[in-house]
Each structure stands twice: as structure tokens, then as C-alpha cells.
Amino acid sequence: MRLGRGAATTYPGSLVYSNAILIEGSNMAECHPVAFRWVMQAKLNGAKVMHADPRFTRTTAVADLHAPIRAGSDIAFLGGIINHVINSERWNTEPFFKEYVTTYTNAATIINPDFRDTEDEEPGKPRGVFSGLGPYKEPPWGLNGFLGQYNPKSWQYDRSPVGEAGRSAATAQSGEQGVQSGQPGGENIPTPPGPPYDPLVKALVPGQPPREDLTLQDPRCVFQIMKRHFARYTPEMVSEITGCPPEKIVEVAETLLNNSGPDKTSAICYAVGWTQHTYGPQMIGTAATLQLLLGNMGRPGGGIVALRGHATIQGSTDVPTLYHSIHGYMAAPTVLKEHNTVEEYLKAETVPTGYWGNMPKFFISYLKSMYGDAATKENDWGFAWHPRISGDHSHMPMMIAMEEGRVKGMMAIGQNPGVGGQNGRYQRTALHKLDWLVVKDNFETETAAFWYKAPEVVDGTTRPEDIQTEVFFFPSAQVGEMEGTFTNTQRLIKFHHKAADPPGDARSDLWFTYHLGKRLKKLYEGSTEPRDQGFLNLTWDFDPAPEEVANWQIKDEPSALKVIREINGYVTGKSDEHLPGFAALKDDGSTTCASWIYSGIYPKPGIENLRAASRVPDPAGGGAANLGWGFAWPANRRILYNRASAKPDGTPWSEAKKWVYWDSNKINDATGKPGVWTGADVPDFALGKAPDAKGQQGAIGLDALSGTDAYIMKADGKGWLFTPTGLVDGPLPTHYEPMESPVRNVLYPDQQNSPVLKAWKVEGNPAAPAEDPDYPYVLTTYRLTEHHLSGVMSRWLPWLAELQPELFVEMSPELAGEKGIGNTDLVNISTPRGTITAKALVTRRMQPMQVAGKTIHHVGLPWHWGYQGLVTGAVTNDLALMVGDPNVSIHEGKAFVCNVEKA
Amino acid sequence: MAIPAQATPIATPAAQPESTAFTSGEPMTPPGAYPPEPMGFFTDTTICIGCKACEVACKNWNGLQAETFILSGDSYDNTRHLNGVNWRHVKFIEQFPESREGGRWLLMSDVCKHCVHAGCLEVCPTGAIIRTEYDTVVIQADVCNGCRACIGACPFGVIEINPLSKTAMKCTLCYDRLQSGLPPACAKACPTESIKFGTIADLHATANNRVQQLNAQAKAEGRPEDAYLYGADESMLGGLNAFFLLVDRPETYGLPAEAKLPSRNLPAASALGIGGALGMAALGAATFRKRRMDAFAAEARGEGEVEGETLRSGGDASLRGEEEDER
Amino acid sequence: MDTALLSRRRLLGRGLAGTALAAMTALGIDLRPAQARAWALRIAEAKQYASVCPYCAVGCDTLIYVKDGAIVDIEGDPNSPINQGTLCPKGAAIYQLHVNPNRMTQVLYRKPGATSWEVIGLDEAMDMVADRVKKTRDETFQETYETTDANGKPVQKVLMSTTAIFSLGGATIDNEWNHLQQKLLRGLGIVPIENQARI
After folding, report:
1. What is the CA radius of gyration of chain A?
2. Which residue in C173, C191, C194 is closest to A387 by CB distance?
3. CATH number for the domain running over B39-260
4. Domain locations in chain C?
5. A857 is a domain residue
6. pLDDT bucket at B316, cuts 50 / 70 / 90
7. Partner A contacted by B135 (CB < 8 A)
8. Closest to C35 (Cβ–Cβ): which among B56, B60, B130?
9. Fewest Cβ atoms closer than 10 Å to its Cβ: which of A61, A125, A765, A853?
10. C47 — contact with chain A (CB < 8 Å)?
């Protein structure tokens, strides 16, 4: 949300170019061992590897420095580094930093005079909250769960508010809170209808550009606001919050500082250790802020590596099986905003300047992919058929709705909420309320077996006879038994070939959904109900060509290539005329394209032209861009915002870190004129836009941006140190305590938690109050190298099951001693949600910390076990609390509280 | 009037590399055997992340079963030891003072050492254990009768009976793969290249550089210069073809400080204490290895005798002596 | 082990000619010549297919080896710039994810209140699920949403959806499935579509 795209800015291979690497919120060596290959290669080249984590893990074992920090205190830790950096001698004397920051970030932008920071105190606004806080009014859906809400008007740029679009997992963007996307006030601006929609977009352009102070001295400029905001994050304060010794905080800051600059870059790697909090996006934002300040974004060996845990978790966000988002990070149409017509939707959602100014093309092409020929200009592209959302329909609120009897049917496909769901017992019990449940997986999962093997059934709380849910279990094909693509953590889309038929009645998930759709089409055939017309017009032809299934026994396997064609896009009516990329999209219905960001992956028919299947390695090795290996969205760019890898004048910052740069002599193929961006990567910039080009006031799209506006997805082309819109919990990251914490908020004693987090206060989901003496220990959950998530893909495999055969609970000898617990003793771990039993692993890798004047112990639990599989164990998530981040509805699995007793 | 959305198109790559020919579905052709010369593993424990990919890759390639499903309580080690089904084993050694200051978690992937002087081979009564053209030591499952002699003879506790085959088993250094020019499964899989595979000559050079690098860094940072190679030189059983970079005493890793040769005919103590040392000093371990491999190379060039399908040494007088005796 | 022994080693004698050498041997020092046995490569001539690891999002490239229609081995692709042939323990175990006696190969069905599974046919099960989806959708579908505008005046908005069916997908499933699943459900007006990414 600070940079423009919901994805890793770089690729793990680029870490070989790093001079220092900070791993935080990630146990990279254990959870992403092969990405960690590049960290080790960097280390062999002399890079410093640092690990900030509550535990001493296999990542720490090979790091140069361990900063032990309390779970959930990362914003304080990174804030301390930011404070150290901007007050350091190097940052204030090496001209690189200020040049990068004033050119490529919004540091110079002046903010609305009404803005008040968390540090400011005045009548009606206590310390610890930003200006604009008020109560939250629930829509009828009733499960949005916010404690409060901000009116973000005062956070805006002075004179000229900017909009924001394209957030990766932002539920709040879909109308749950005030306008969080599109141009502020866009809904009320008179616009001409379309198509063409460019006049509509143009009508949204603000009358004047935001004000700036390039000297960064104005007290209302972003830089000064940020400086004041973090001023109290001194090493001593941060140490008191995090438990990390002050000298370690300084050492990390100095190491990053000394390894950033024109000829050096540092990288930050994170994973779900940063997302699973009630302020997760703000944690990531703190890292983005730091990387912008250090000039590490858009450069080789720099950036932020988001380490995702599933083969195509990036893909399932891009191609969104997420309620709040339609293809390519467009907001799902919602009744909570004015989305009745295409015109209204575009007015509400379009950010007129920056690349998002093209959104009408993306949106109309998407509607064409849904309804085909039936989507016409005359019927508003069939938009009236498209469903609207009406609140937070994400995982946790849906399980609560299920418990309330509002959900009748469920499909759990390749997903195992019986183990993976927060407050697992609550979620499994909610399944009892369903009329029907479909589970599809390779093995019989805990979710499939909830009605006869779950602890609440085995312990007699309920009997199978009393569970009226009808359950279907469909066996799945495995990756080698089907064709398809995965999008990995670096946005790289790769095709996998079918090598064998699946056994018996096992089928691909694609087969299941396609044939379910075909059956439903038949069932609805001939209906004249208005509600059924959209479905009847839904295009649904993915039958394979004979040659695609010639070698296989399953002849009705749908064609993955046909699906990819629809994702890539083609000229309407000419399905063999594939689109070369998203620049070819039109807003008049003449192009059909499900996912604009993936456009270009399949520019011509035939698998030989499928760029996801291309496997041409770069001779220079894994650190190189490897543009011939798979296809990275967007447009095969490997490092995002790589315009910033060159100086404002277009020349490389240094020979050592040369990546993308302006070549004034080279001919731009598109125009035939000299002057083009070029280099090792695909430039993430308008190819022919010279470094000294001015942005055109009043223009839309990229024309509004200048030759130095490297962050092309942002309305102002800048990396955002301060987010005037797009986040519901504040424009700057602030330290709050987790929902459950054994200590008071040292920084803001009167504001313990995020004032806007999502708390679902329902029976069966109780939370412990702050400093609850019954639950004095911090519980953190995590994964191990040897297993995968809920264990479906690992606990049934003997080779993996033997490596970590049983659930264990890690604790320090100090805590174990206090509790009379010996190594491998059975231990009961309890939270207000329940109690589970695990064997103790007593280890000095866990250490007591001094926090807020108290000794704080961590208790660590991996969460891979359940009651199915070759090796079984208690469900760790039975302990977890359903509480959510206000921006993205992700739970807080990394920091809550518990008690432990010898069993 | 229509307004152009953008004067300049968003950047698209000027030229894309050519796609490789689509090869899925085509038969795999092995690259061809590695040339016969001493090959082995150099395991750099300082970049081991304890992921156990080596253990699984080994089991996958060699078709070995999982054995035990019990939490050991000994750090993250649950496979416990090398044996007939664990041909690779990762050790986890936690070294933390109460203050945690300077704490370490030593991780090390252990394996058969493929000793230049291999006790197992020497004691094997059936001839199931051979010295290969790569100077590695391999047990032939179909010759082994499970007598367990080799198990006691191994100074490292590497060998055990495989419960399925009932024969003695251990790492073959993926002999089948080497003969087709593929690296051993564990070394191929190792994400950080902690396990390096190559010719002994190359591995020695790499390992020595790494020791120097680590100790130079340690010196610069005022830490103890504790990196050294275990088993790389001749003093240990003539040299180990699988040797290690360690940062603590061998015993810390469960390795013997001085590996003892087996003794069939003499008391163990005298065997190693006097005779072994004298023997090695007299002949020089490298000489053994070199002689063996020279002989093999000569054979391969057609200079030696070929008996049946078994390639054997020729050329070297002392070794021919053995052969003649054999006849 | 799938290795073929082409020649069987002759038993070697133990005596040695030279005394020094005899002593060495007695000490366990191996003086025997190197020998080669031709061991067959079990994947030689197997069909190979390019694939990708289905576990984490690093996206390691793999090669699948197939003989007589059956997967016999899965390894890292040495040409890949992502993993350069390497894998983690999970990646190294992908073969066992495919070839595993614990895998389910039949559709299981549990009637309401039943205490055990029964096996049913794939076609029958698909028909039943289609029937359930239609029934639940038709019973719960809402075409409009009643609310008020800024002035408190009642207004009707387009809703065209139901929240009574919840689709929860994993994130190790192909992009193509994600596309069809969200398209089918949005096409039907079923909006609670979620996946592992939220976790």
C-alpha cells in the first residue's frame, strides 16, 4: 500500500547482490529453505545476515546477528531503526539518501493542516490515535467487527487529495469503511458516461498538484511529520517494548545504514510473522518506509522479499478467490458504495493519475470475460448481473455466520480449516450447522473427518448422530497429474505439465469446478428468472482439444490453456487473436481479458508461446533477471519500481548496482526515436519517457507522471512514507500491543491496541484482557521445515512424518524450571479458548526477555498437527483467537497469551 | 474528443529470449559417467540450515523407508543416527550459555566417510564391499549376507542392517548416479550447498579456502579462529572422501577425534596406536589412493588386465602382488 | 534399490605377498584395487516432464520421471534459476505425495447423522453437489439490498448475491482453478469466496 502493488518487489535470487539482509517476521531458513540458498550465497560473498525474532531458529543459527524481540513488537523495533537512521550522521551527510527520498518518495509532500499524529494531544484526541477517530456503524451484515473507524480526510495531501487502488488483500477497501479506494470524492464528481471512459477519468483529475517542500523543512511535510512521529522510538524505549538490548537495535540500524547507498543495497525478508497481527500491513509498511529512506527500493539486492507459504498464494490473490477483490486487484462491487452501474463503479474506484487511470479498460475487459457477447454497451456490460458484496465475507466472519446458522453449504477445496482455522474448535463446531459440506483433497483431512474424529466428538461433547451435515469427500489429483500454473512468491508464473493420470476417481480441482459448472448450467437451462440470466450468460467453454487429452485416460479434463487464454485476453470474437499485453486493452468491449495484470503471459496460441512454460535460464545464474524463465507479472518485470535503480537523471546509481537506466542513444522500437529505458530487467516505467519529462497537469494515466515518478501505480508516482489514503488504521505505523498481551503499551499507556481492529465478540471466542495473570506467557505459533501448514501434504508422507513426528511446545529452561516441567514431559497449554496437550521441548533457544519492567516468557508451538495422518497431535489453533487486522481481516496467530502447566 | 490514455505505452520488453524446445514427455538421456577419479563430499557445517533435505532426497532416490515416529526430545533430531535406512543424518547441537551470549546451534549433515582406508571393506568376508573407480566404498546388496562384520568395523557407526533387505547398508555416494554423470541425490538437493560434491582435489581446494575465509573473518571480529577440516588430510584413515568443516571439537559433533581402524588380528589399541600410525607414515595415505586410482585409470585405458566384466588394477607391482596372490 | 549388478565380485584372497603389506592389511588398511560395477540408472530412458513444487511459494522447478505411465522419481530441475536443482525436504518428498498408499481414490459420502462413510460414484456425487448448490442458492438468493441514501431516504441497490454458500480454497491449487472457481461462484452470485491467502 506504500508502493503500489500487493506483491514482493523483488525475487529471492536478487539477494545474492545484497550487502546486508534483515530477516524479520520470517524464519526463512526453515520455511523457505531454497530461497534461503541466496541468503547463504550472499553471506559467502561477505553480506551480513541479521535475524530479528523471538526465537533462536535454524535461520538464526547461520545469521551473523540475532536481535531477540518479543512477538508482535516489530513496529517498535523497525521504528527504532528508522529513528536511528534519519538522525544518523551517514544518512544526513551521504547525498544519495536525500536525493532518493526527495525524488522518489512523498517525503516533500505537504499534509493537510488538520492532521494530528498519535504523538499529538489535544482536547478530544488522546495520544495514541490519529485525528479522525470515531465509532463504527455496522451495516446489516453485522460481522465487520471494527472497534472504531477513522475519517481519513485530515490525513490527506494538502490542497489536492489523492486516491489509491489495487491493494492486495484489503477488505476494508470494499466499502466496510469510508472511501478507501478511488479518487476521494470521485463518487460525487459529475462525469460524462462512457464508453469511451477517458473523459470520465479525466473529470476525476484533481485541479492542482499537491504542494511540496523539496528542502524537507516544512513542519507539515511528510518527512518532518514522520521524524516527529518516530522521535520517541529511542533504543531505550524500543528495548523496553521489544525486550531487545538497545545495543543490538543500534547494531542492526548501523549495519543497514552502512550497507545502503549508491553502491550498496540491503534487503528485508518477511513472511507471516508480519502479516498475522492486528496491525500486520502496518508492520510491512514500516519496513517499506525504512527501505525507501535507505534508498533500497527498486534496486538489485534491495527491496522487500515477501515470502509466501503456498505454491500459488500469490496467484490465488492475483486471480482472486477472495471475496473483496475481482481480477487484477480491482475492488469487488459492493452495496456499501455507489456501485449500481459501471459508470458509478468507475467513478468510485478509478484513480485518474498513475497507471490505474486505465482501470476502465481492465474492468470492461473483465466483464466481457464473464458474460461474453451478452455483455454490451447497451446493457451496461452485464454489470447488473454481477454480484455485490455486503460486508466482510472473509474466513473468520463466515465461520461466525455459519455458527449463527446463516451459511448452509460449504466447499473446502485443498483447504483444511479443521486444523488451520483460528479457534479451531469453534470453527469445527460451526460445521455442524451446515446442510452440506464438500471437501476435496488428496488425503482425508481433519475437516472431512470433523464429524467422527474431532476432539469435541471423541470427548463426547457431541455425537456423530447429532450432526446433520451431509459430507462429500472428493479425492484430488496431485501436481504431476494435471496441467496448470502456479504464481510463486516473486510474482513468477510457471506452467507444470501433466506427467501421469491420477488414480481412481481422483480428479484435478479444475475438473471438479468445470464439471460442477456444466451440471449447473444444465440445471438452470431455460430459466427465465432475472436472477439466473447472469449465470446463463456466463461463458463456460473449457472443453479440451482432442490432442490435449490424447495421451491420457481422463478425456474430459478441462483445458488449462483455454483458461489461460481467457486470463491473458484476446480480441473479442477472435479467440485465436491473443492480446500481447495489458497495453492492448480497450474500454469499448473489443477486448476480452479476465486479468489485466497477467495479460502478456500467452501472447499467441500454442503451448510453445505460453511464456509461463518458457524455461530458458540466464547463463549469469540465479541472481540474474532470467527473463526467459517463466513470466512475472506485470509485463515480465522482475524488480518492481526499477526506475528507482537509476538516479533521477537516468544514469545508474553506481556500476555495482546498475540495473535499469536511460539510454538516450538507443532507439525506442515503439516510436523509432532515440531514448529508451533499458538494462538487465524489463523497465517498470513508460519505456520512452525521458528522465526530465514533466508530468502533464490535468492529464490522466501515466501522462500525469514525470520522468522521475518511479512508483507508477501511485496517483502521484511516489513511494509513500505517509499513506494519505488506503489504510484504515493510520497513515503512519504506530506501536500497539497485540489484542492479547502480558504487558501494557509502554509507548501509549492509554491506547493498548489498535483502536480500529476487528474483534468478533461472540460466545466461544473470549479474549484475555491485558496483563491477565491467568495467561502470563506470550504464545507464538509457527511452521517447521519438515511439515507443510495443516499437515495434509506432509503428515501422510512417511519420509516427512518421521522427521517431526509429534507436536511439541518449546520453552526456556527458566520457564520450565518455574513450572517443574522436564524435557519431553506432557504439558497442558491453555488460553481462554481451550487447552491442548503437547510434549515439552525445553531449550535455551528460547529466552526470557525483560519487557516493560517484567520478565516475559515466550511459549512456542508449531501448528502442523491434527487428528488425521500417519502422525497425529493436538490442534494448536484450538488455542488461537479470532481477531482481525482492520485492513485485511487476517488473524493474530503470531502473538497471543497462554498458560502452561505440567500435564 | 477522445483523449489518449497515455502517450507512451507502459514498458514492455524489447526482446524476449527464445523459448527452449518443448521437452516434456521426451525420454531422459543420462549425461554419461563421471571420469574415474576420487570423488566425495565436502560438508561445510557453517552453512547447513538443518533442513534435512539430504535425508529425504537420499531416501527418495535409494528407496529407503521411514523408520521411527517418536519425538526424541534431542533438539530437532528425530532420526537419531545413521543406519541401514538413514544414509544421511542431520545432527543438531545446541550450545547456549545461561546468558545466551554467543550461543550457537551447530547443524551438521553426517554421512559415510568413504574412508581411504576403509575398515568395513577390509573385514567384509563376502566381498560385498568394494572400492569403486571413484575411490568410494560401496556395499553390494546382492552379495552381502548380513553377517554384520562391517558394522563393528566402522569407526563412525555408519552401517547397520536394513530391516527390509536384511543386509548391511549405508551411503553408496549414489554410485548408480555417478556412473550416469548425475551428482548424488543429497548434494544435489542441499539448498545451501552445505553438502558439496566433486573431485577430492577440487573439494580440498574449496574447503581450504573456506577455512581461511572463516578464520580471517573471525580474527577480524575478535572471535576464536575455530574453523578446521575434519578428515581432509591423510592423518585420518588415509583421508576421508567425505570430510567436514567443523567449528568445534569432533566429539561435539559425535565424531571420534581419532578414528580407529578395525583389527581382525590384533588388539585394537595396538592396531591404531602403533601399527596404524607407522603404516601410514611408511607408505603415505595419499600414495594408497593415488596408486589405486592410477591403477584403475591404466586399466580403463586398456593397459591392465580385464577379467570377466570386473575391471581390476594392473601396473602397480605391489598391487599386482595382491592379485597374483589372489589367483 | 533399483540397481542391477552386472558382474559379481570374486572373493578376494586374504594373504599378501609382502610382509609390510600383510601387516598393513592386518591393521585394516585397504590395499585392494579399485573396481567398477556397472549400476543401472533407474530413471534412464524415463519420460521427463517439467513441473513445479506444490508446497511453498518459492516455486522450485522440478522434473518428473515416468516409466510405463507411472511416476518413478521427482527431482529438482538443475537448469532452474529458482532452485538450481536443489529442494527442501518437502520438495524432495514430492514423489511420496503422488505415490502413496494413503491417498484417497474414491468419493466418500456421509449422510446426515450417519456414523460412517460410504463410497459413491463420481458422477453421482457431482450430480448431488450440483443439486445442493442450486437448492441453497435458490433459497437464499437476494436480488436487491434495501438501504438509505445520505439524506435518509430509502433506496434499493443491486445485490444479486447470496452469502449462504462459503467457498474456501487452498493456495496450492492452480491459478486456472482459482479463475474457474471464482468465475463460477460469481457467475452464480455466491460471494463468500476465500482462500488460504487470508491466513
Report:
1. 27
2. C191
3. 3.30.70.20
4. 47-98, 105-137, 141-199
5. yes
6. very low
7. no
8. B130
9. A853
10. yes
Q: What's the average model confidence in pLDDT over C77-82? A: 95
With residues binned 3-state (H G I as helix, E B as strand, rest as coil), the percentages for chain C, rounded to 5, are 25, 25, 45
Q: How confident is the model at residue B286 (pLDDT cuts 50, 70, 90)?
A: low
Q: Which residue has the cell 470475460?
A: A369
Helix axes A509-524, C122-140, angle to 10 degrees: 60
Using the 3D structure, point to which of A716, A734, A766 is the last residue of a domain. A716
In this structure, are residues A66 and A60 in contact, taking their beta carbons and an 8 Å threshold?
yes
A9 & A101 share domain: yes
Residue A350 located in a structural domain: no
Question: Quick check: A47 and A36 in contact, CB under 8 A?
Answer: no
Set of chain C residues whose Cβ sits within 8 Å of the Cβ of B288: 29-31
If asked whether residues A240 and A94 sit together in one domain, one would say yes
If you search the block for the grid coordinates 498519535, which residue do you land on? Answer: A118
| Interface ipTM | 0.97
Residue C21 banded pLDDT, cuts 50, 70, 90:
very low
* Option in A357, A687, A847 nearest B9 (CB): A687
Instruction: Tell the CATH superfamily of the C47-98 domain.
Output: ADC-like domains (2.20.25.90)
Do both A104 and A219 map to the same domain?
yes
| A705 and A762 part of one domain | no
- Look at chain A and report how many structural domains it folds into: 2
Judge if A806 and A706 occupy the same domain: no
Domain boundaries, position A293: 1-112+214-309+639-649+681-716
- CB contact under 8 Å between B16 and A636, yes or no, is yes
A224/A298 same-domain check = yes
Phi, psi (deg, nearest 5) at residue A149: -150, 150
Closest C-alpha among A27, A11, A53 to residue A785: A27
Same domain for A888 and A806: yes
Judge whether A292 lies within some domain.
yes
Neighbouring residues of A204: CB distance < 8 A, sequence distance ≥ 6: A183, A186, A189, A191, A347, A350, A352
- Residue A69 CB partners (closer than 8 Å, separation 6+): A24, A52, A53, A54, A77, A242, A243, A244
Nearest-neighbour CA in chain B from A881: distance (Å): 28
Give domain status of residue A629, yes or no.
no
What is the domain-level CATH number for residue A693? Answer: 3.40.228.10
- Taking chain A (903 residues) in runs of 10, the rounded mean pLDDT of each run is 79 96 97 97 95 98 98 98 98 98 98 97 94 95 96 93 72 76 86 92 92 97 98 98 98 98 97 93 96 97 93 92 94 94 95 94 98 98 98 97 98 96 97 98 98 97 97 98 96 97 98 98 98 98 96 97 98 97 97 97 96 92 93 96 97 96 95 95 96 95 96 94 94 98 97 97 97 98 97 97 98 98 98 98 98 97 98 98 95 96 97
Q: Say whether both A223 and A99 belong to one domain.
A: yes
What is the phi/psi pair of residue A320, to 5°? -80, 105
Band of the pLDDT at B299, cuts 50, 70, 90? Answer: low
Residues A669, B14 contacting (CB under 8 angstroms): yes
| Confidence tier at B310 by pLDDT (50, 70, 90) | very low
**Sequence ranges of the domains in chain B:** 39-260
